[in-house]
Design a protein that fits this description.
Strand order of the largest sheet: 1-2-3
Number of strands: 3
Low-confidence stretches: none
Structural class: alpha+beta
Mean pLDDT: 89
Number of domains: 1
Shape: globular
Distance between the termini: 17 Å
Helix content: 25-40%
Order of helices and strands: EEEHH
């Protein structure tokens, strides 16, 4: 695994906030985020189950540019073939 740090929530004051990395070996975007509340999780589950090996996280809109950068980096490492 070759994780490359892309960015952290710009409003972070403790370093324990949503963070984004790119795994340069697999071209995957890796996200740390806030857990959803029960209502939000319920809405997510309305579209289908979340397997035990997956999770739902929330990322603030102020991190859109960080997410774009991560997606662009993952795509570049994937030879531009898309994710």
């Amino acid at each position: 695994m070759a994780l490359r740090f892309v960015g952290i929530d710009p409003n972070s004051d403790t370093g324990q906030c949503p963070t984004v990395w790119v795994d340069e070996a697999t071209s995957e975007v890796v996200i740390q985020g806030w857990l959803p509340d029960k209502e939000m999780l319920g809405e997510c589950l309305a579209t289908g189950p979340v397997p035990d090996t997956e999770g739902v996280v929330r990322i603030p809109a102020r991190m859109v540019e960080i997410l774009r950068e991560a997606c662009d980096a993952a795509e570049r490492h994937n030879g531009g073939a898309g994710l």
